[in-house]
């Protein structure tokens, strides 16, 4: 197989791996009844005029399976962080005791669990679509190379390799979704 075809396939597989990494990051943010500091990623507070992730202005830890504690490094940031968490609308009301903010995760109802599974499946579908888009782009590049004079057999082999990689990463998406569904539906 020519170097150009190998480069196209390597680029496609690395992009597919990035789609899986993105899916994993999104699935972690979906709470499954257990407290996880990552749930607060993406929430920004106004830190002296500039929007700053709260993980950069406070210490975020889990006290137990259902409690997250947010300890600001500066006491005057307590109310700012509390307002940012409320504004983020993550479904958890912060409890401010004047020193730290505690987030108590309520137990999930059956209905809420099903909604979270739907949300996970939606994220999974987005991951599959991006993987398929990578495959489509790779095959278009391969066909262009074939028009420019590359061997037809090598191009067919490269297309088959792109499809194999796509199948592998789609299966990986399915595994992540199945594991997350089990995690969410566990009581």
Rg computed from alpha carbons, rounded to a whole number of angstroms:
22 Å
Within CATH, the superfamily of the largest domain carries the name: Ribosome-recycling factor
**Largest sheet, strands/sense/barrel:** 4 strands, antiparallel
Find the count of extended strands (DSSP E, 2+ residues): 6
CATH architecture descriptor name of the largest domain: Orthogonal Bundle
Helix content: 55-70%
Contiguous low-pLDDT stretches (5 residues minimum) are none
Structural class per helix/strand content? alpha+beta
User: Overall pLDDT, averaged?
Assistant: 88
Q: What is the rounded distance between the termini?
A: 51 Å
Q: In sequence order, what are the helices and strands, one letter per element? A: HEEEEHEEHH
Top-tier CATH class of the largest domain: Mainly Alpha
Give a written overview of the molecule:
- The longest helix is centred in the C-terminal third of the chain and has 38 residues, at 110-147.
- This protein has helices at 3-29, 78-88, 110-147, 152-185, and strands at 44-47, 50-53, 58-64, 67-72, 94-96, 101-104.
- The protein contains four helices and six strands, in the order H-E-E-E-E-H-E-E-H-H.
- Helix 1 (3-29) packs parallel to helix 4 and helix 3 runs antiparallel to helix 4.
- 59% of the residues lie in helices and 15% in strands.
- A hairpin with a 2-residue loop joins strand 1 and strand 2.
- With 187 residues, it is α+β, with helices and mostly antiparallel strands.
- The radius of gyration is 22 Å and the shape is elongated.
- The N and C termini lie far apart (51 Å).
- The model has no long low-confidence stretch (mean pLDDT 88).
- The strands form two sheets. It has a four-stranded antiparallel sheet with strand order 3-4-6-5, with helices on one face.
- It folds into two domains: 3-29 and 109-185, Orthogonal Bundle (Topoisomerase I, Chain A, domain 4), CATH 1.10.132.20; 37-104, Gyrase A, domain 2 (2-Layer Sandwich), CATH 3.30.1360.
């Amino acid at each position: 197989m020519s170097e150009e075809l190998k480069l196209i396939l390597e680029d496609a597989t690395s992009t597919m791996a990035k789609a899986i990494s993105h899916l994993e990051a999104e699935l972690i943010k979906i709470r499954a009844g257990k407290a996880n500091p990552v749930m607060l990623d993406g929430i920004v507070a106004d830190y002296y005029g500039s929007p700053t992730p709260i993980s950069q202005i406070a210490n975020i830890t889990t006290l137990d399976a259902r409690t997250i504690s947010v300890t600001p490094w500066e006491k005057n940031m307590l109310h700012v962080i509390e307002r940012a968490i409320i504004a983020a609308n993550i479904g958890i009301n912060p409890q401010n005791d004047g020193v730290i903010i505690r987030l108590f995760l309520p137990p999930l109802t059956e209905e809420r669990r099903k909604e979270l599974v739907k949300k996970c499946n939606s994220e999974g579908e987005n991951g599959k679509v991006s993987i398929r888009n990578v495959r489509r782009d790779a095959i278009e590049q391969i066909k262009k190379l074939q028009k420019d004079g590359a061997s037809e057999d090598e191009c067919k082999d490269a297309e088959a390799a792109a499809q194999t990689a796509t199948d592998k990463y789609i299966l990986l998406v399915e595994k992540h979704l199945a594991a997350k569904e089990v995690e969410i539906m566990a009581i």
